[in-house]
């Protein structure tokens, strides 16, 4: 037997086709990611002296400063505001698959997988990346 085919992303999760609570679509998700990473790069440059053109032996850990700031933004803002700054600016929020607050540990695990990139770019039929599936979360429109 094959799995039932859904008509739209989120149908199998009991999510509406559009509007609040519907699955956030890829364009919105990617734009949110770009906003978050741009903010992280600006913060890293301002406070940590990030220099993208320095040689690794000259800059050391500072080459990874934007990614560290990005991870910190995700880990702090997801449990407190329901999403990263990029998510919230673009009208999205992260919640448990069954609804509700994501708690404290899920944003840490999700962010760890997100910075590895590969888990975030492999999606299922509901447009959920492996990083969301592992922790049982879903990014929806608010």
Describe the overall structure.
By secondary structure, the protein is mostly helical. The chain has one domain (21-141). The protein has seven helices and two strands; from the N terminus they run ααααβαααβ. α1 crosses α3 (65-81) and α3 packs antiparallel against α5. The longest helix is centred in the first third of the chain and has 23 residues, at 26-48. The chain starts with 25 loop residues before the first helix and ends with a strand. The relative contact order is 0.18.
How many angstroms separate the termini? 36 Å
SSE pattern, N- to C-terminal: HHHHEHHHE
The tally of helices reads 7
Beta-strand share of residues:
5-15%
What's this, in brief?
This protein is mainly alpha-helical and 142 residues long.
Topology overview:
Elements: H1 26-48, H2 56-59, H3 65-81, H4 85-89, E1 92-96, H5 105-114, H6 118-121, H7 130-135, E2 137-141
Antiparallel strand pairs: 1-2
InterPro entries: Pra-immunoreactive, UCP021697
Transmembrane segments: 30-50, 62-82, 103-123
Keywords: Membrane, Transmembrane, Transmembrane helix
Task: Name the descriptors.
mainly alpha; elongated; two-stranded antiparallel ribbon; 142 residues
